[in-house]
Fold this sequence. Notes:
The protein is of the alpha/beta class. It has two domains: 6-202, 2-enoyl-CoA Hydratase, Chain A, domain 1 (Alpha-Beta Complex); 206-252, Lyase 2-enoyl-coa Hydratase, Chain  A, domain 2. The protein has ten helices and nine strands. It has helices spanning 30-45, 67-77, 113-120, 147-155, 157-166, 172-178, 190-202, 206-222, 224-239, 242-252, and strands at 6-11, 14-19, 51-56, 102-106, 109-111, 123-127, 131-133, 170-171, 183-185. It has a six-stranded mixed sheet, with helices on both faces. Strands 5-7-8 form a three-stranded mixed sheet. Helix 4 runs antiparallel to helix 5 and helix 8 (206-222) runs antiparallel to helix 9 (224-239). The longest helix is centred in the C-terminal third of the chain and has 17 residues, at 206-222. The mean pLDDT is 95.
Amino acid sequence: MSQQPVEVERVGHVLVIGVNRPEKRNAWNLAVIEAVAQAYQELHDDPQLRVGVVHGAGEHFSAGLDLAEVGPRVAEQGPGALAGSTGVDPFGVWAEPVGKPVVLAVQGIAYTLSIELALASDIVVAASDVRFCQLEIGRGILPFGGATFRAPAHLGWGNVMRFLLTAEEFGAEDALRIGLVQEVVAPGEQLAAALRIAERIAQQAPLGVQGTLANARIARRDGVAAATEHLRELLPEVMASDDAREGVMSFLERRQARFSGR
């Protein structure tokens, strides 16, 4: 039986998405792009799923795009080919972003799209042996998964121009310093650490989590005024939810809340 390029597993309310081409350093070919997009669509659509975790099998997260295969498709269809065929783009650039949190676990080589996927994710856990590199300019092209505008906006201009314009590698310490990653662990522990974070998120009220994520994204993209208006419209619905009532009852009864997402 042939190996699946992406393995998808449900662990409670968490969808675990693993790129599984270790013999190719998990380079993303067209099959990987499509399978990851389909998994993100599943995460987005299924009310039982509350958080996603993305990782790469083996020693490395990803060497980037398999340009020999993906390059001609991008040349023919444009950069939106990176998003796959669904309505949800894992990079949140060429179609809508997934509406639920994503925790990324990276290790070893984490080149090009790895950084852009980190920028599109909500929390990133890195093994201490991670080696980031945005090397597109060394290949005669430029990034097209969000690095050119997300990284300067969120990580600091000088920090970002250093790795965007030099194609230099940088490691976990620098990634943590500039805010690309939020936690550094020993090699081999990154997936377990990401799952712990995802499971903690999954225990919270889904409507509150998704509303928080949506409101923060609006603030980042459109500014405080737009986020304030969104919050004004969203809050009454959340406050009237079963989960809000459960939150109050669990507090009064001094027990763990059991949220349903309704």
